Amino acid sequence: MKQEQTATMLTQSVTRALGILSCFSDEQPELRGIDFAKKLNLTQSNVSRLLTTMVTLGYVEKDELTGFYRLGPEIISLGGIALNHYEIRKQALPELHELERKLGLGANLAILNGGQMFYLAHVDSHKSPRMFTMIGRRNPLHCTGIGKVLLAFADPGKAAQILEEEGMKGYTEKTITVQDELLLQLDQVRKRGYAIENEELALGRACIAAPVRGRSGQVIGGISISGPLSEMDLSRREAELSAILIEATDRISMKMGYITAGYSRF
């Protein structure tokens, strides 16, 4: 009985510690102890004990001047280990750098995770480098180039379920928010082998995305090239950019074990 109680307490502590880590976000990268208590419905004394332990282990840092907590260096170490474990990232990175060098556009790799696209790699355009990383961020599927690729080549039942559960929020006046309209576009994605996103997630930006396939032919991720409307210039460069991108994704697919011979994209 005592062993069961101890195991329960340990499980509870682990759950609460993970809950603390989950409280951090791009919008709230730093939090006070009372913020964790409110978010997790815990007492401040419980939160304080957990935070003290997590600071000691390096998973959380405390700013002694402000009293705010932020994620610690151990999280970065674990993130690096996780990223290095993805074979698709290893094989895609050289191609992303080559796309940026050749086109002067940003290049991205993302996979499907929990009904959203999840960035595994990003190479900034040297013309407009970001002050933050895209790696580890998530975006919706219905209004992003890679998201449309992942939906288009997913099992139809799974794609419909994702759209139903995640919804189709409008981000700009160009965002597609009607499922039937999106399904028609996804059919075009399958026919031509790439997807376009034109100011559907953010005004002034566009992207083209294409699928990466694994050994069995199943789509396991997507690559996109993106940039300002003036740089993408889709009305003039769509054919050129999509052809270069598809060549790159075909090379990555082959590195992932997919045999493209005899495969018709159209």
UniProtKB/TrEMBL annotation:
Gene Ontology molecular function: DNA binding; DNA-binding transcription factor activity
Domain of life assignment: Bacteria
Any Pfam family: HTH_IclR
Entry annotated with the keyword Transcription regulation: yes
Keywords: DNA-binding, Transcription, Transcription regulation
Alphabetized InterPro entries for the sequence: GAF-like_dom_sf, HTH_MetabolicPath_Reg, Tscrpt_reg_IclR_C, Tscrpt_reg_IclR_N, WH-like_DNA-bd_sf, WH_DNA-bd_sf
Residue ranges annotated for the IclR-ED domain, each copy included: 74-258
Gene Ontology biological process terms, A to Z: negative regulation of DNA-templated transcription
Keyword DNA-binding: yes
Transmembrane segments: none
All residue ranges annotated as the HTH iclR-type domain in the record: 11-73
Protein name: IclR family transcriptional regulator
Provenance organism: Paenibacillus thalictri
